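Dear support,

I submitted the protein below through the web form. The confirmation email said the job was done, but the results page showed an empty box. After a refresh the structure appeared. I'm attaching both so you can tell me whether what I see now is the final result or a partial one.
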Amino acid sequence: MLVGCDSGGGPKGAPAVEAVPPVAGTGSAAPAGGLPQLPGQTFFVSDRTNAARQMGALRTQGRAAEADELARIAAQPSSQWLGERGAAQIAEQVGRSATEANRTAVFVAYNIPHRDCGLYSAGGAADAAAYRAWITEVAQALGDRRAWVVLEPDAVAHTLDGCGVKGDVAAERYGLLAFAVQELKKRPNVRVYLDAGNPGWVQDPGELAGALRKSGIALADGFAVNVSNFYDTDRDAAYGARLSAALDGKHFVVDTSRNGNGSGGSDAWCNPPGRALGAAPTADTGRPGVDAYLWIKNPGESDGECGRGEPGAGEFWLPYALGLVRAARQG
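What the results page shows now:
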């Protein structure tokens, strides 16, 4: 059994993926049919996220000022995380709602065995066979709809740190990730980005590139950086560019959900104070090789208890959410 370890990157604090999925959203023009385009891409905005629900509750309670602040989060497209329970159903329902809104859904596949090194977001599929069945069902549920999938935050980087995912266990993980890429890319309108950690984690781009190659990056559309972390966009882009150079120019996406004030340090990954919302999700980044800024981590959802009594991983935490909004306004 794997035990918790200090990754330098930190657990993801995944949302409660078994929660009721989004069923509606706002829409504007997006490319119709075909593999998702980049500039001009519009992403799905759900009215059933934790932030949107909390915003509605605040209005019901007569707390209009706080509700208006929370709208800074609720009005932006956030990713739908998929975990152990109900993933295929959620993927199908969210994908259908996004299509009806003429937008593209963004998903996070997060169910790898030995997930998160046994830390706050521990869990995942019971074994390799269960994972293969799970990702196959998710891919089938996506069907022919447009979707972007960020694949397994932390999974590759944890094979290169002190987590304990080594030897045969690491080899199995690389094989499962490659299988997942292959299954997802069978769907004609799905883009896939393998998670590649963040600037404070694996420091050798050649070593990380090698692990990503074993994990199927050649068939993927690219990789993701800064998932659920706080590094500023310039640093993320530089990190991604170095890794891209080691991967024959593969493109990447950046999680900007909470990086408006940058990182508080490599160890400040668990609900650090003083952080701010980052750039809004867009495929018009203006940076060569950066396909999109995405809110992969849902702002306002806890990273975990962090030893200080905060809400559990994935639970919505109103004071933290409002802090992100207010800090962004001051920036």
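Response: this is the final, complete result; the empty box was a page-load delay. The CA atoms of residues 159 and 166 lie 6 Å apart.
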